[in-house]
Amino acid sequence: MSNTQSRAPRPVADERVALKARRVSFSWDRTPLHWIPDDPFTTHTINVLHLLLPAGERWFVHVYKQVLPYIRDDRLREDVIGFIGQEAMHSQAHDEVLPHLKEQGLDPTPYTAQVDWFFEKLLGDRTLPPGRAREWWLMERVALIAAIEHYTAFLGDWVLNADELDRKGADPTMLDLLRWHGAEEVEHRSVAFELFEHVDGDYRRRVRTWALAFSALMFLWQRGARFFMENDPTVLDGKASFKEFYQGGKRGVLPSTAAMVKSIPRYLSRSYHPSQEGSTAQAVAYLATSPAATAAEARTSNGAV
Fold first, then answer.
1. 72 CB burial (10 A radius; 0-12, 13-18, 19+)
2. Contact predicate 3/265, CB 8 Å
3. Please, what's the b/e burial string for 136-170 (b: 16 or more CB within 10 A of its CB; e: otherwise)?
4. Pick from 248, 260, 223: which is nearest to 39 by CA?
5. CA 80 to each of CA 117, 142, 161, 187, 233: distance values in angstroms, whole numbers, following the listed order
6. How far is it, in rounded angstroms, from Cα 294 to Cα 12?
7. Whose CA is closest to 189, among 162, 140, 154?
8. CA distance 54 to 61
9. CA distance linking residue 116 with residue 98, whole number of Å
10. pTM, whole model, 2 decimals?
């Protein structure tokens, strides 16, 4: 799609599903440090999600609770409430991986402290007077979340289709965590963008906040991969490089650089709508078979907490 198009965003009408938080649980007792066998770089590049997502998704929830009074559409409000529930569960699930990493000799605390500072301080609430300034900062953060969600949905769609991870013998529990999360990101991929369009929708703000979100994510991700490789007690002189990331994309064990680059003009197109990408049917189908999601559904049906 051309970035010069002026058509309004066009949702796919039959893609919407009722969003619900699935109270999943994972056991990490049998998951090795390098859960992709003989591939610490790919393992740790994906492991960065466990460091970024808990703080980021707690921040999503915090911001969205502030924006709820601005929502004038009942269906969108319902979607946002469902989104909040799912994101809170994502944060908890990834947070629970961190003690497992620490037990295996890789303490993530120095890096997660930096991520917490980024979301809680740099992007957190500011002491602003009520009125235009406070509203401006809220809308900036709503737009930032829409941009970030473009990439979480991109990653969700990728991991649902990353068959090479299965062929490499990746740990099934970790794959289920990633694919359960990825499927829910695809399932709710339109919510953040539709909320931004509803409460603001300024195209210049969309472009500006995309640039910030993309730059921040790239910086934090490479920093996280480097942190893991340098601190992995089983890797001698571990390093992370863009070349390795690029090659991982070519092999199918990481998102391809070309696909990531091609996603940029799609988001910046004036006719962009997230429902045009990914497959809700595929996401829902995975959630219907995911070991963690089906176990959570069974506990809910039996009245367990």
1. exposed
2. yes
3. ebbbbbbbbbbbbbbbbbbbbbbbbebeebeebeb
4. 248
5. 25, 12, 27, 13, 42
6. 27
7. 154
8. 11
9. 14
10. 0.92
Residue among 212, 183, 213, 151 nearest 283 (CA): 183
Cβ proximity of 20 and 85 under 8 Å:
yes
Distance, CA of 46 to chain centre: 12
Contact 54, 94 (CB under 8 A): yes
Q: Is there a contact between 276 and 194 (Cβ–Cβ < 8 Å)?
A: no
Q: Are 203 and 147 in contact (CB under 8 A)?
A: no
**What is the tens place of the pLDDT at every residue in 153-197?**
999 999 999 999 999 999 999 999 999 999 999 999 999 999 999
Residues with Cβ within 8 Å of 137's Cβ and at least 6 positions away in sequence, in order, are: 126, 128
Q: How many CB atoms lie within 10 A of CB 40?
A: 18
Answer yes or no: are the C-beta atoms of 194 and 77 closer than 8 Å.
no
Pairwise CA distance, residues 199 & 61, whole Å: 17
Higher-confidence position of 305 and 295: 295
- Chain segment 135-148, per-residue pLDDT in tens: 999 999 999 999 99
Cβ pair 150, 267 in contact under 8 A: yes
Q: Distance between CA atoms of 184 and 152, rounded to whole angstroms?
A: 10
What tokens does 23 get? 């109270």
Nearest CA among 33, 158, 45 for reference residue 104: 33
Residue 154, helix vs strand vs coil:
helix
